[in-house]
Amino acid sequence: MLPGKASVVEAADRIAPYIHRTPVLTCSTINRMFGGEIFFKCENFQKAGAFKSRGATNAVFQLSDTEIQRGVATHSSGNHAGALALAASRRGIKANIVMPENSSRIKILAVESYGGLITRCKPTLAAREETLKEVISKTGAVEIHPYNDLRIIAGQATAAKEMIEEVNDLDLIMAPVGGGGLLSGTALSARYFGKHIRVIAAEPAGADDAFRSFTSGTFIPSVDPRTIADGLRTSLGSLTFPIIMENVDDIVTVSEEGIIEAMRLIWERMKIIVEPSSAVPLAAIIENKLNISGKRTGIILSGGNVDLENLPFKTTV
Q1: What is the dihedral of CA 239, 195, 287, 262, to 10 degrees?
Q2: Coiled-coil intervals in this record (predicted)?
Q3: CA dist 118 → 28, 121, 298 (Å)
């Protein structure tokens, strides 16, 4: 099962009134550093601050009026939570959000600002899923999974679709990987709309379940992930894993130091705010996990929801 080309095109049309067609930026300094052309798809400028608005909006606006009467529900550590709360508010329905206790403060505030109804839980996948079952049992809300949902995958695919339409002759597209919704969608768009584009994912070494699953060919769940990239702590799903196995060329891992260095480089050189998860693909380039010299490489900057009171690098005034 996977979203076909028509599903991605339909998703793009469906969400167009509600999301931004985000810009693609370049940085001559970063290009010189690595000897290639890098094109950054700025989903940090997206509604609710992340690519997640694409999938959430696509899913919510595919539901019938009957289905949405009791609202929607999900579990999420942050960006999907905010995106679903915003999409639900646009349809005038309730969004019930299960969030781990260690979720980012700024992401909790975002969910609340969009009218989401938060239920807290322990920071484990089992706790998230069990708490969500309880919420759905009480409310009758429709579950919108953060990534293991064909509607979500089709929506996330629209980011790479836009990049391919705007940037000719890409050799590579890179995306971070957590649950795999963005990576699955990116790989499908590369296949449907591109020409011989290689798709490379990057993942924190402290949360490397996707890397281990990909290299072994067997699903390995995330257990006790430890990374500053809070959006990448989840396991792949039953839908995203097979799509990734069939359509992604490689997955590489990066250090926490590399993530922080890449994040700072983007802040300092491009003058834009990105969260740690967004910096993971550039970290792979910095750490020589792949050679982009002479190539045209697209990177999806997944989001910009970072707590300015808790930056990973020191700042001076």
Answers
A1: -80
A2: none
A3: 43, 10, 35
What pLDDT digit, counting tens, does each position of 98-114 carry? 998 988 888 899 999 99
Q: Report the CATH architecture of 53-143.
A: 3-Layer(aba) Sandwich (3.40)
Question: Taking the CB of residue 166, how many other CB atoms lie within 10 A of it?
Answer: 14
Pairing, β 72-75 against β 95-100: parallel
Beta carbons of 162 and 40 less than 8 angstroms apart: no
Helical (H) or strand (E) element with 252: strand 250-254
Listed in sequence order, the residues at least 6 apart from 308 whose beta carbon sits closer than 8 Å to its beta carbon are 106
Q: Name residue 142's beta-bridge partners.
A: 72
Return the exposure string of 227-261: e unless at least 16 CB atoms fall within 10 Å of the residue's CB, then b.
bbbbbbbbbbbebbbebbeebbebbbbbebebbbb
pLDDT at 299 over 60: yes
**Is domain 5-50+152-301 in CATH 3.40.50.1100, yes or no?**
yes
- Specify whether the CB–CB gap between 65 and 317 falls below 8 A: no
pLDDT for 317: 44
The Cα 105–Cα 144 span in angstroms is: 22
Write down the pTM of the prediction.
Answer: 0.95
Rama region for 258: left / alpha / beta (φ>0; ψ in -120 to 50; rest): alpha
Phi then psi for residue 210, to 5 deg, are: -65, -45
Rounded distance between C-alpha atoms, residue 37 and residue 18, angstroms:
31
Average pLDDT, the chain: 95
Rounded mean pLDDT, 80-92: 96
Q: Which whole number is the average pLDDT over 165-182?
A: 97
* pLDDT score of 200: 98
99-108, 160-169, 187-196, range with the lowest pLDDT = 99-108
Q: Domain extents for the chain?
A: 5-50+152-301, 53-143
Q: Rounded distance, CA 269 to CA 115, Å?
A: 35
The reply to whether 5-50+152-301 and 53-143 are identical in fold is yes
The pair of three-digit structure tokens given for residue 169, joined into one six-digit string: 């002759």
